[in-house]
Design brief:
The protein is an alpha+beta fold and 187 residues long. It has helices at residues 57-77, 117-131, and strands at residues 30-40, 46-56. 19% of the residues lie in helices and 12% in strands. The protein has a two-stranded antiparallel sheet.
Length: 187
């Protein structure tokens, strides 16, 4: 994971850490973790946070396993066209969006690794927004940063994030209660 992140860890740098795992048969599935995080603060000072955690390993992992299965199954159902494609395609067999639920992201060869939790979550949300014909959320709020605000009018895009031609879209542009897909004008 260190080699995949040349922004945080440039040549030869690595995190300073020590991991010790000991098996204690008596505690069974109940695991105890003692984590200590030390960081540098202003004027050369140090801040240390110590956490003691006791939990059942299998109960902690179960919701993640269920989410991995559900997300994988949903992504197997998604088929899309990009640009002028004539045939539908599916996601790559290395489903990199599952990285949101794992420690070390796995991506297809040549694909940039995204190690940012917020960006990974945003990717999943935007894929599902594209599936229902909504434009992606990019958090730029560019309409509030322009020198001439009147020159920009946020509207729902006719084309989704995965560039599915609007003539091929099966999903209606209306919400089940009859209203159009426009909430507060921002997307």
């Amino acid at each position: 994971m260190v080699e995949s992140n040349d922004i945080l860890y440039s040549d030869g740098k690595k995190p300073d850490h020590c991991v010790v795992i000991k098996y204690v048969p008596y505690v069974g599935d109940s695991k105890r973790a003692m984590d200590e995080y030390t960081s540098e603060i202003m004027m050369g000072g140090h801040n240390t946070i110590v956490v003691h955690n006791t939990c059942e390993d299998s109960l902690l992992a179960s919701p993640l396993i269920l989410d991995l299965i559900i997300l994988t199954e949903m992504c197997q159902r998604i088929k899309f066209k990009v640009g002028d494609d004539t045939e539908y395609q599916t996601f790559h067999s290395v489903l990199s969006i599952l990285s949101y639920l794992c420690k070390a992201p796995l991506v297809p060869a040549g694909t940039p690794v995204i190690n940012a939790l917020f960006r990974q979550k945003s990717c999943i949300e935007n894929i599902f927004r594209a599936c229902v014909g909504l434009s992606p959320i990019n958090h730029m709020v560019i309409e509030h940063k322009l020198s001439r605000p009147a020159s920009f009018s946020p509207e729902v895009s006719e084309q989704s994030a995965v560039d599915v031609p609007s003539t091929k879209r099966v999903i209606s542009q209306d919400i089940p209660n009859g209203g159009p897909i426009v909430s507060n004008g921002y997307h």
